[in-house]
Amino acid sequence: LIFPTSSSLHNTNHSMSAEQQPGDAKSLLQDSNLKLKQKDITFLFEIHHKQQQCQDEIKALKAQLQDLEDQIQQEETKLGLNVKPSGEAEVLEAGKKRFNENPRKGIEFLIENGHFKEGGTAQEIARFLYEHKSLSKVQIGDYLGEHKPLNLQVLTEYLHLHEFTSMEFDAALRLYLWGFRLPGESQKIDRMMEAFAKRFCVCNKSVFSNSDACYILAFATIMLNTSLHNPSVQHKPSLDEFISMNRGIDNGNNLPRDVLARLYESIRSEPFKIPDDESGTSITFFNPEHQGFLMKEGGSNRTWKKRWVVLTNSCVYYFKQKGDETPLGIIPLVDLVAREPLEDARTKSRALAGRGRGKEEGVYFEIVGEEKDGIAAVIKGCKINSKGVVVQGNHTRYLFRAETPDERRLWIRCINDTVTSSPFYNLYAARVNAARDSVMPEF
């Protein structure tokens, strides 16, 4: 049975009988020697009409699908994804974008697309990291700190690109730390600072007895910079205190006083500039252990405001907006603990009242100090007042609200891990003790 076209179907009067129908339907039925009732013929015409409608709709959907595929292709081309770059410049730009998202995949992409003339040697990769300023400082630090054989070789070659000969110690350290952001993991920090110490000693053989002394002084310099220029640190060490803390670090011997004095004055007069991918420079040395938006209780009226919170360098910094260079406040994590509020009902009641909403429940946690004789200790935090002046706070606790229980648990764990274990200080202290113990007489 051959169906009529959609145009003939559209012009057919379905109320006519088969014998009365003058067009194709009657002849088709006669030619096929079929004896069908009028309702059967009408049903077949209706099916054909529906079939034609479906085909038209499929054709329209295919056109829409093709438009969407074209849009996807355009966006992927902009992002450098799933596109085979045609030129060397395009390969490089696509590789840098991938590196800033995932360092390992970015390097693999550049190797696969022939960017490195010798196939991606450690020396080639190191030069790539050293020369291209648009690469993420955070991702460079993470890549250089990895313990895989290739990453270790790249770290060595990266140091070889730095010529420290006859440079002042702090100038060499400033140059090195400007190229990346130190990662937060202690093992990565240890490897990267050890590599710096060895390279500096190779370039300046008469300054230290061994690379351990250089390693220790590098950490001491970073801590001095933090103490002198971080507004959350109340005590500013003197020159004599700085010299005392570095006593006996050079294989049991003291470094010359004039060397330490020049170093101290240099750091006091000009703080380190620490690279940051968003703001250009940063107040902290290490890549944050954790960061994100939280609601923070504050003010005499206990109001709640959204703050960008960063946990790093044994401090909690909170900012008005993500990317701001100056924090609104700093909480040094000294003798503190993060926990769920003990007085949950009263806390939530007050918190919800402060937010002006009585129905929505939040997920709260607090940072508190130790209690002595039933009295909560004042936290040695500081904040920027309305006049832009740094003032010491008088909080006995800081109260925050997270969005989910999982987010709260993560913040509590990260803060408490920072309180109980500072890789920055621990690495320094361990190496100092080893240096001093190495020359002590046996009893």
- Looking at how many chains there are and whether they match, the oligomeric state comes to single chain
* Strand order of the biggest β-sheet: 7-8-13-3-4-5-6-11-12
Model regions low in confidence, pLDDT < 50 over at least 5 residues:
1-36, 345-349, 351-360
Q: What Rg, in angstroms, do the CA atoms define?
A: 35 Å
Number of strands: 13
User: What structural category do the secondary elements indicate?
Assistant: alpha+beta
Report the mean per-residue pLDDT as an integer: 78
Percent of residues in β-strands: 5-15%
Shape: flat
Number of helices: 16
| Run of helices and strands | HHHHHHHHHHHHHEEEEEEEHEEEEEEHH
Share of helix, binned: 40-55%
Report on the biggest sheet: 9 strands, antiparallel
The rounded distance between the terminal residues' Cα atoms is 112 Å
List the helices and strands and how they pair.
Layout: H1 6-10, H2 24-31, H3 38-79, H4 88-101, H5 103-112, H6 122-131, H7 137-145, H8 149-160, H9 169-177, H10 186-203, H11 211-229, H12 239-245, H13 257-269, E1 274-276, E2 280-282, E3 290-298, E4 303-312, E5 315-319, E6 329-332, E7 336-339, H14 344-355, E8 363-369, E9 371-372, E10 375-376, E11 382-384, E12 390-392, E13 397-402, H15 405-420, H16 423-437
Antiparallel strand pairs: 1-2, 3-4, 3-13, 4-5, 5-6, 6-11, 7-8, 8-13, 9-10, 11-12
Characterize the structure shown.
The protein has helices at residues 6-10, 24-31, 38-79, 88-101, 103-112, 122-131, 137-145, 149-160, 169-177, 186-203, 211-229, 239-245, 257-269, 344-355, 405-420, 423-437, and strands at 274-276, 280-282, 290-298, 303-312, 315-319, 329-332, 336-339, 363-369, 371-372, 375-376, 382-384, 390-392, 397-402. It is of the alpha+beta class. It has a 9-stranded antiparallel sheet with strand order 7-8-13-3-4-5-6-11-12, with helices on one face. Strands 1-2 form a two-stranded antiparallel sheet. Strand 1 and strand 2 form a beta hairpin. Helix 4 runs antiparallel to helix 5 (103-112). The longest helix has 42 residues, at 38-79. The radius of gyration is 35 Å and the shape is flat. The termini are far apart. The model is unreliable at 1-36, 345-349 and 351-360 (pLDDT under 50).
